[in-house]
Amino acid sequence: MTERSGRPPPNLSPDPAADAPAARARVARAPLAARATMPLAFRQPALLWHRDDAVVSGLADRLRAALPQLGCRVGGAQVRPDSDAAADARVRGRLAAEGTDLGIVLGGDGTLLAAARILAALDIPLLCVNLGRLGFLADISPAETFDVLPSILRGEFFAEERLLLEVQIHRDGQVLGTGIALNEVALHKWDSLKMIEFETRAGGRLLNRQRADGLIVATPTGSTAYALSAGGPILYPDLLALVVVPICQHTMAIRPMVLGAQQAIEIELTNDSWSRARVVCDGQQSLPLEIGDRVLIRARERPLRLIHPAGYDYFELLRTKMHWGG
């Protein structure tokens, strides 16, 4: 997984010796019409939203008016957190036909997770304006949107690749369901308070057999989500790794583990399981399981690309969101 900066900004000053901060300051003060003459890294952004309220629609209307002044054509689609294969395919097809080259998510982390599920197959990078609550993934505030967006569109940004997970449910030698996850895949009981029993394999080798309320397999991105609440560690986003975290396990001897992302994870419900179970991808897509079903989880070959403003600092994000001080 790599991290990289966007394309270097063009020399915007008549004086080649002018420093970059001063040049950027002049660009920030320039009217949108003047900035439209500058080369663009993205020309066909699409606005992506879930909530249909005054806050979201007001920001969307302002962006639809402002982006054409920068030389962009603007598309858009509503994305829904609840997974619907047919609806997802329609949105994906429409954005592909429009030539979308950047998704601008208006919402919180849940909306970005939905956008990732729908658009990952198109390899469209995403940036997110935080209209949600905590916002580990959505890192642009509404107040700074119109200050940082022109620079991002010109290629002045920080880009990184985030690991995605692919999930398959196998039953009697057939694939019954598939899913995709940016944060985590969670196996959990769902019809009673009784624990489930399952075996976990990593890279084809038995890892453990346990009774628990469930198991979380999280990406580094998802290590600050459900996995963190269940006692897992925080992983830096560029690691090619997975964290496997039991949920309320029967024995405290089984602890969270960090494994290389090249190892496929396989989970099988055993005959001793006392409760029915489900697999849930990013809290949005739910796949029911039966005794003997196998859940195969692999790192997706192509990661998701996230776009951040220049100067993005993950440690600063952690300090801010988790109130670490400093």
Q: What do you see in this structure?
A:
This protein is an alpha+beta fold and 326 residues long. The chain has helices at residues 20-29, 32-35, 54-66, 85-97, 109-119, 145-153, 226-229, 314-322; strands at 3-5, 45-49, 75-78, 102-107, 126-130, 157-162, 165-171, 174-181, 184-189, 196-202, 205-212, 214-218, 241-247, 257-260, 265-269, 277-281, 285-289, 294-299, 304-309. The strands form 4 sheets. It has a 6-stranded antiparallel beta sheet with strand order 8-7-18-15-10-11. Strand 4 (102-107), helix 5 (109-119) and strand 5 form a beta-alpha-beta unit. The chain is elongated and about 65 Å long. The chain starts with a strand and ends with a helix. The relative contact order is 0.16. The model is unreliable at 1-5 and 7-37 (pLDDT under 50).
Average pLDDT rating: 87
Radius of gyration: 22 Å
Range of strand content: 25-35%
The biggest beta sheet reads: 6 strands, antiparallel
Annotation, overall tally of beta strands: 19
Structural class: alpha+beta
Poorly predicted residue ranges: 1-5, 7-37
Gross morphology is: elongated
State the helical fraction. 10-25%
Main features:
six-stranded antiparallel β-sheet, 8 helices, 19 strands
Write the layout of secondary structure elements.
Blueprint: E1 3-5, H1 20-29, H2 32-35, E2 45-49, H3 54-66, E3 75-78, H4 85-97, E4 102-107, H5 109-119, E5 126-130, H6 145-153, E6 157-162, E7 165-171, E8 174-181, E9 184-189, E10 196-202, E11 205-212, E12 214-218, H7 226-229, E13 241-247, E14 257-260, E15 265-269, E16 277-281, E17 285-289, E18 294-299, E19 304-309, H8 314-322
Parallel strand pairs: 2-3, 2-4, 4-5
Antiparallel strand pairs: 1-6, 6-19, 7-8, 7-18, 9-12, 9-16, 10-11, 10-15, 12-13, 13-14, 15-18, 16-17
